[in-house]
Amino acid sequence: MKTFSIIGCGAVGKTVGRLLHEAGAAALRDILTRSLSSARAAADFIGAGRPVAEFGGLERVDLYLVACPDDAIAASVGELCRAGLVDRGTTVCHLSGALASDVLEPAAALGARVASVHPVKSFADPAVCVGDFAGTWCGIEGDPGARELLAELFGAIGGKIFEIDPRFKTVYHAGSVLVCNYLTALMEAGLRAYQKGGVPRETALLVMEPLVRGTVDNIFRAGTARALTGPIARGDAGVVGRQLDALESFDAELALIYRALGHVALQLSRQKGQAQAPGLAAIEELLAT
Ligand SMILES: NC(=O)c1ccc[n+]([C@@H]2O[C@H](COP(=O)([O-])OP(=O)(O)OC[C@H]3O[C@@H](n4cnc5c(N)ncnc54)[C@H](OP(=O)(O)O)[C@@H]3O)[C@@H](O)[C@H]2O)c1
Predict the structure, then answer these.
(1) For ligand 1, which residues put their CB under 6 angstroms from it?
(2) Which stretches of 73-225 are assigned E, i.e. beta strand?
(3) Are residues 117 and 20 in the same domain?
Protein backbone atom coordinates (compact mmCIF):
# COMPACT_ATOMS: atom_id res chain seq x y z
CA MET A 1 0.00 0.00 0.00
CA LYS A 2 1.25 3.51 -0.84
CA THR A 3 2.21 5.76 2.07
CA PHE A 4 1.25 9.42 2.31
CA SER A 5 1.64 12.42 4.61
CA ILE A 6 -0.42 15.58 4.83
CA ILE A 7 1.23 19.01 4.92
CA GLY A 8 -1.35 21.46 6.25
CA CYS A 9 -4.36 19.65 7.61
CA GLY A 10 -7.39 21.92 7.87
CA ALA A 11 -10.86 21.43 6.38
CA VAL A 12 -9.74 19.67 3.20
CA GLY A 13 -6.75 17.77 4.63
CA LYS A 14 -8.83 16.31 7.46
CA THR A 15 -11.68 15.27 5.17
CA VAL A 16 -9.51 13.70 2.48
CA GLY A 17 -7.10 12.20 5.04
CA ARG A 18 -9.88 10.50 6.97
CA LEU A 19 -11.59 9.20 3.84
CA LEU A 20 -8.33 7.79 2.41
CA HIS A 21 -7.51 6.20 5.77
CA GLU A 22 -10.97 4.69 6.26
CA ALA A 23 -11.09 3.39 2.68
CA GLY A 24 -7.69 1.75 3.17
CA ALA A 25 -6.61 3.48 -0.05
CA ALA A 26 -3.19 4.52 1.33
CA ALA A 27 -1.40 4.46 4.67
CA LEU A 28 -1.19 7.82 6.46
CA ARG A 29 2.17 8.47 8.12
CA ASP A 30 2.64 12.11 9.20
CA ILE A 31 0.53 15.23 9.65
CA LEU A 32 2.35 18.57 9.70
CA THR A 33 0.57 21.86 10.45
CA ARG A 34 1.69 25.20 11.87
CA SER A 35 1.10 24.07 15.43
CA LEU A 36 1.54 20.66 16.98
CA SER A 37 -1.82 21.02 18.75
CA SER A 38 -3.72 21.37 15.47
CA ALA A 39 -1.76 18.42 13.99
CA ARG A 40 -2.83 16.38 17.03
CA ALA A 41 -6.45 17.45 16.57
CA ALA A 42 -6.25 16.46 12.89
CA ALA A 43 -4.78 13.04 13.80
CA ASP A 44 -7.62 12.53 16.30
CA PHE A 45 -10.20 13.45 13.68
CA ILE A 46 -8.68 11.17 11.05
CA GLY A 47 -7.98 8.32 13.46
CA ALA A 48 -4.43 7.95 12.14
CA GLY A 49 -1.26 9.92 11.46
CA ARG A 50 1.66 11.07 13.57
CA PRO A 51 1.54 14.78 14.49
CA VAL A 52 4.77 16.48 13.40
CA ALA A 53 5.97 19.99 14.21
CA GLU A 54 8.69 20.55 11.57
CA PHE A 55 9.67 19.39 8.10
CA GLY A 56 12.84 17.78 9.47
CA GLY A 57 10.64 15.43 11.51
CA LEU A 58 8.78 14.02 8.50
CA GLU A 59 9.30 10.46 7.24
CA ARG A 60 9.89 9.75 3.55
CA VAL A 61 6.63 8.64 1.95
CA ASP A 62 5.30 7.91 -1.55
CA LEU A 63 2.93 10.90 -1.63
CA TYR A 64 2.98 14.32 0.04
CA LEU A 65 -0.49 15.85 -0.01
CA VAL A 66 0.07 19.60 0.39
CA ALA A 67 -3.24 20.85 1.83
CA CYS A 68 -2.13 24.17 3.31
CA PRO A 69 -3.56 27.53 2.10
CA ASP A 70 -2.60 28.45 -1.47
CA ASP A 71 -0.16 31.15 -0.37
CA ALA A 72 1.82 28.63 1.71
CA ILE A 73 2.09 25.87 -0.94
CA ALA A 74 5.30 27.09 -2.63
CA ALA A 75 7.08 27.59 0.71
CA SER A 76 5.95 24.16 1.97
CA VAL A 77 7.26 22.43 -1.16
CA GLY A 78 10.54 24.31 -0.78
CA GLU A 79 10.78 23.01 2.80
CA LEU A 80 10.03 19.43 1.69
CA CYS A 81 12.82 19.66 -0.87
CA ARG A 82 15.31 21.22 1.55
CA ALA A 83 14.55 18.49 4.09
CA GLY A 84 15.73 15.90 1.53
CA LEU A 85 12.31 14.21 1.34
CA VAL A 86 11.81 14.48 -2.43
CA ASP A 87 13.34 12.37 -5.18
CA ARG A 88 12.37 10.40 -8.30
CA GLY A 89 10.18 8.04 -6.29
CA THR A 90 8.11 10.81 -4.71
CA THR A 91 4.76 12.23 -5.76
CA VAL A 92 3.86 15.74 -4.55
CA CYS A 93 0.40 17.14 -5.03
CA HIS A 94 -1.69 20.09 -3.87
CA LEU A 95 -5.45 20.62 -3.73
CA SER A 96 -5.83 24.23 -4.83
CA GLY A 97 -8.32 25.14 -7.53
CA ALA A 98 -6.59 28.42 -8.32
CA LEU A 99 -2.97 27.24 -8.76
CA ALA A 100 -1.58 24.73 -11.24
CA SER A 101 1.02 22.09 -10.44
CA ASP A 102 3.83 24.35 -11.73
CA VAL A 103 3.97 25.80 -8.20
CA LEU A 104 5.46 22.39 -7.27
CA GLU A 105 8.35 22.96 -9.70
CA PRO A 106 11.13 22.65 -7.05
CA ALA A 107 9.94 19.07 -6.40
CA ALA A 108 9.70 18.33 -10.14
CA ALA A 109 13.28 19.59 -10.54
CA LEU A 110 14.37 16.85 -8.13
CA GLY A 111 12.63 14.22 -10.28
CA ALA A 112 9.35 13.98 -8.34
CA ARG A 113 6.04 13.48 -10.11
CA VAL A 114 3.79 16.48 -9.44
CA ALA A 115 0.09 17.17 -9.92
CA SER A 116 -2.85 19.04 -8.48
CA VAL A 117 -6.28 17.68 -7.67
CA HIS A 118 -9.07 20.15 -6.97
CA PRO A 119 -12.21 18.81 -5.32
CA VAL A 120 -15.01 21.11 -6.51
CA LYS A 121 -16.75 21.30 -3.17
CA SER A 122 -17.16 23.76 -0.31
CA PHE A 123 -15.43 22.17 2.69
CA ALA A 124 -17.08 24.04 5.54
CA ASP A 125 -17.25 21.29 8.18
CA PRO A 126 -14.99 18.21 7.82
CA ALA A 127 -17.35 16.11 9.98
CA VAL A 128 -20.13 16.75 7.45
CA CYS A 129 -17.86 16.58 4.40
CA VAL A 130 -16.63 13.04 5.14
CA GLY A 131 -20.28 11.97 4.87
CA ASP A 132 -21.09 13.71 1.60
CA PHE A 133 -17.75 13.72 -0.27
CA ALA A 134 -18.70 10.74 -2.47
CA GLY A 135 -19.72 12.02 -5.90
CA THR A 136 -17.54 15.17 -5.66
CA TRP A 137 -15.99 16.13 -9.01
CA CYS A 138 -12.20 16.45 -8.77
CA GLY A 139 -10.29 18.43 -11.43
CA ILE A 140 -6.84 17.02 -12.03
CA GLU A 141 -3.73 18.10 -13.95
CA GLY A 142 -0.04 17.32 -13.84
CA ASP A 143 2.39 14.50 -14.65
CA PRO A 144 0.73 11.36 -16.05
CA GLY A 145 2.11 9.12 -13.27
CA ALA A 146 0.96 11.50 -10.55
CA ARG A 147 -2.45 11.90 -12.19
CA GLU A 148 -2.84 8.15 -12.31
CA LEU A 149 -2.06 7.79 -8.58
CA LEU A 150 -4.42 10.63 -7.60
CA ALA A 151 -7.20 9.30 -9.83
CA GLU A 152 -6.84 5.94 -8.11
CA LEU A 153 -6.84 7.41 -4.58
CA PHE A 154 -9.60 9.98 -5.08
CA GLY A 155 -11.62 7.42 -7.06
CA ALA A 156 -11.37 5.07 -4.07
CA ILE A 157 -13.10 7.65 -1.85
CA GLY A 158 -15.88 8.40 -4.34
CA GLY A 159 -14.33 11.33 -6.25
CA LYS A 160 -15.25 11.71 -9.92
CA ILE A 161 -12.16 12.69 -11.90
CA PHE A 162 -12.00 15.16 -14.79
CA GLU A 163 -8.99 16.72 -16.53
CA ILE A 164 -8.03 20.43 -16.51
CA ASP A 165 -5.71 22.33 -18.87
CA PRO A 166 -3.03 23.70 -16.49
CA ARG A 167 -2.39 26.71 -18.78
CA PHE A 168 -5.88 28.03 -18.02
CA LYS A 169 -6.37 26.84 -14.48
CA THR A 170 -7.12 30.35 -13.20
CA VAL A 171 -9.84 30.77 -15.82
CA TYR A 172 -11.17 27.30 -14.90
CA HIS A 173 -11.30 28.33 -11.24
CA ALA A 174 -13.11 31.57 -12.11
CA GLY A 175 -15.82 29.31 -13.60
CA SER A 176 -16.71 28.04 -10.12
CA VAL A 177 -16.65 31.59 -8.75
CA LEU A 178 -19.04 32.71 -11.51
CA VAL A 179 -21.56 29.89 -11.11
CA CYS A 180 -21.40 29.74 -7.30
CA ASN A 181 -20.36 33.04 -5.71
CA TYR A 182 -21.58 35.31 -8.51
CA LEU A 183 -24.89 33.46 -8.69
CA THR A 184 -25.40 34.60 -5.10
CA ALA A 185 -24.44 38.17 -6.07
CA LEU A 186 -26.83 37.99 -9.03
CA MET A 187 -29.67 36.92 -6.72
CA GLU A 188 -28.92 39.97 -4.59
CA ALA A 189 -28.97 42.24 -7.67
CA GLY A 190 -32.36 40.78 -8.65
CA LEU A 191 -33.71 41.27 -5.13
CA ARG A 192 -32.79 44.96 -5.21
CA ALA A 193 -34.69 45.38 -8.48
CA TYR A 194 -37.78 43.65 -7.05
CA GLN A 195 -37.59 45.88 -3.96
CA LYS A 196 -37.43 49.01 -6.11
CA GLY A 197 -40.65 47.72 -7.69
CA GLY A 198 -42.35 47.79 -4.27
CA VAL A 199 -41.97 44.09 -3.39
CA PRO A 200 -40.71 43.48 0.17
CA ARG A 201 -37.51 41.45 0.32
CA GLU A 202 -39.16 38.43 2.00
CA THR A 203 -41.92 38.34 -0.63
CA ALA A 204 -39.36 38.76 -3.42
CA LEU A 205 -37.45 35.72 -2.14
CA LEU A 206 -40.66 33.67 -2.22
CA VAL A 207 -41.45 34.88 -5.75
CA MET A 208 -37.92 34.16 -6.98
CA GLU A 209 -37.60 30.67 -5.55
CA PRO A 210 -39.69 28.68 -8.07
CA LEU A 211 -38.40 30.86 -10.91
CA VAL A 212 -34.74 30.26 -10.03
CA ARG A 213 -35.16 26.55 -9.21
CA GLY A 214 -37.10 25.98 -12.43
CA THR A 215 -34.43 27.76 -14.49
CA VAL A 216 -31.62 25.75 -12.87
CA ASP A 217 -33.54 22.51 -13.54
CA ASN A 218 -34.06 23.54 -17.18
CA ILE A 219 -30.34 24.31 -17.61
CA PHE A 220 -29.27 20.87 -16.38
CA ARG A 221 -32.03 19.11 -18.30
CA ALA A 222 -31.85 20.93 -21.64
CA GLY A 223 -28.64 23.03 -21.68
CA THR A 224 -28.17 26.79 -21.40
CA ALA A 225 -29.39 27.82 -24.88
CA ARG A 226 -32.70 25.93 -24.63
CA ALA A 227 -33.20 27.09 -21.03
CA LEU A 228 -33.01 30.78 -22.03
CA THR A 229 -36.36 32.55 -21.98
CA GLY A 230 -37.37 36.22 -21.74
CA PRO A 231 -36.91 39.31 -23.93
CA ILE A 232 -33.51 38.38 -25.37
CA ALA A 233 -34.68 34.84 -26.24
CA ARG A 234 -37.71 36.43 -28.01
CA GLY A 235 -35.69 39.20 -29.69
CA ASP A 236 -37.84 41.83 -27.97
CA ALA A 237 -35.63 44.91 -28.37
CA GLY A 238 -38.29 47.31 -27.04
CA VAL A 239 -38.34 45.61 -23.63
CA VAL A 240 -34.54 45.42 -23.46
CA GLY A 241 -34.22 49.14 -24.27
CA ARG A 242 -36.78 50.19 -21.64
CA GLN A 243 -35.21 47.94 -18.97
CA LEU A 244 -31.77 49.35 -19.69
CA ASP A 245 -33.11 52.92 -19.31
CA ALA A 246 -34.94 52.03 -16.08
CA LEU A 247 -31.87 50.33 -14.58
CA GLU A 248 -29.56 53.21 -15.59
CA SER A 249 -31.71 55.63 -13.62
CA PHE A 250 -32.17 53.24 -10.66
CA ASP A 251 -28.67 51.80 -10.21
CA ALA A 252 -25.84 52.07 -12.73
CA GLU A 253 -24.17 48.89 -11.38
CA LEU A 254 -27.29 46.82 -12.04
CA ALA A 255 -27.39 48.26 -15.56
CA LEU A 256 -23.77 47.18 -16.08
CA ILE A 257 -24.58 43.61 -14.95
CA TYR A 258 -27.66 43.56 -17.22
CA ARG A 259 -25.53 44.74 -20.16
CA ALA A 260 -22.61 42.34 -19.57
CA LEU A 261 -24.78 39.24 -19.09
CA GLY A 262 -27.01 40.43 -21.93
CA HIS A 263 -24.11 39.85 -24.35
CA VAL A 264 -23.86 36.21 -23.22
CA ALA A 265 -27.65 35.83 -23.36
CA LEU A 266 -27.58 37.19 -26.92
CA GLN A 267 -25.12 34.46 -27.98
CA LEU A 268 -27.39 31.86 -26.39
CA SER A 269 -30.45 33.35 -28.11
CA ARG A 270 -28.72 33.06 -31.50
CA GLN A 271 -27.94 29.40 -30.73
CA LYS A 272 -31.52 28.80 -29.67
CA GLY A 273 -32.80 30.25 -32.94
CA GLN A 274 -36.23 31.34 -31.65
CA ALA A 275 -35.85 35.11 -32.22
CA GLN A 276 -35.79 36.98 -35.55
CA ALA A 277 -32.39 38.36 -36.67
CA PRO A 278 -33.48 42.08 -36.81
CA GLY A 279 -34.65 41.97 -33.17
CA LEU A 280 -31.37 40.43 -32.07
CA ALA A 281 -29.35 42.98 -34.08
CA ALA A 282 -31.27 45.81 -32.36
CA ILE A 283 -30.58 44.25 -28.95
CA GLU A 284 -26.89 43.97 -29.78
CA GLU A 285 -26.82 47.68 -30.54
CA LEU A 286 -28.69 48.56 -27.33
CA LEU A 287 -26.34 46.48 -25.19
CA ALA A 288 -23.28 48.09 -26.79
CA THR A 289 -24.36 51.70 -26.29
N1 LIG B 1 -12.02 24.95 1.74
C2 LIG B 1 -12.49 24.59 0.57
O3 LIG B 1 -13.71 24.62 0.36
C4 LIG B 1 -11.55 24.11 -0.51
C5 LIG B 1 -12.10 23.46 -1.63
C6 LIG B 1 -11.24 22.95 -2.61
C7 LIG B 1 -9.87 23.13 -2.48
N8 LIG B 1 -9.36 23.80 -1.39
C9 LIG B 1 -7.91 23.95 -1.28
O10 LIG B 1 -7.45 23.08 -0.25
C11 LIG B 1 -6.28 23.67 0.36
C12 LIG B 1 -6.49 23.76 1.86
O13 LIG B 1 -7.60 24.58 2.13
P14 LIG B 1 -8.40 24.47 3.53
O15 LIG B 1 -9.69 25.19 3.32
O16 LIG B 1 -8.40 23.07 4.00
O17 LIG B 1 -7.46 25.34 4.48
P18 LIG B 1 -7.56 25.50 6.06
O19 LIG B 1 -8.81 24.89 6.59
O20 LIG B 1 -7.31 26.95 6.34
O21 LIG B 1 -6.34 24.64 6.62
C22 LIG B 1 -5.04 24.99 6.29
C23 LIG B 1 -4.09 24.08 7.04
O24 LIG B 1 -2.77 24.39 6.61
C25 LIG B 1 -1.96 24.66 7.74
N26 LIG B 1 -0.96 25.65 7.36
C27 LIG B 1 -1.10 26.98 7.19
N28 LIG B 1 0.06 27.53 6.81
C29 LIG B 1 0.96 26.50 6.77
C30 LIG B 1 2.32 26.42 6.48
N31 LIG B 1 3.00 27.51 6.16
N32 LIG B 1 2.92 25.18 6.52
C33 LIG B 1 2.22 24.08 6.87
N34 LIG B 1 0.92 24.10 7.16
C35 LIG B 1 0.30 25.29 7.12
C36 LIG B 1 -2.88 25.13 8.83
O37 LIG B 1 -2.23 24.88 10.06
P38 LIG B 1 -2.90 25.17 11.50
O39 LIG B 1 -3.98 24.08 11.61
O40 LIG B 1 -1.82 24.98 12.46
O41 LIG B 1 -3.49 26.53 11.38
C42 LIG B 1 -4.11 24.25 8.56
O43 LIG B 1 -3.94 22.99 9.16
C44 LIG B 1 -6.08 25.03 -0.32
O45 LIG B 1 -5.15 24.89 -1.36
C46 LIG B 1 -7.45 25.34 -0.89
O47 LIG B 1 -7.40 26.18 -2.03
C48 LIG B 1 -10.18 24.30 -0.41
Answers:
(1) 7-13, 32-35, 38, 67-70, 72, 75-76, 94-97, 118-119, 121-123
(2) 91-94, 113-119, 137-142, 160-163
(3) yes
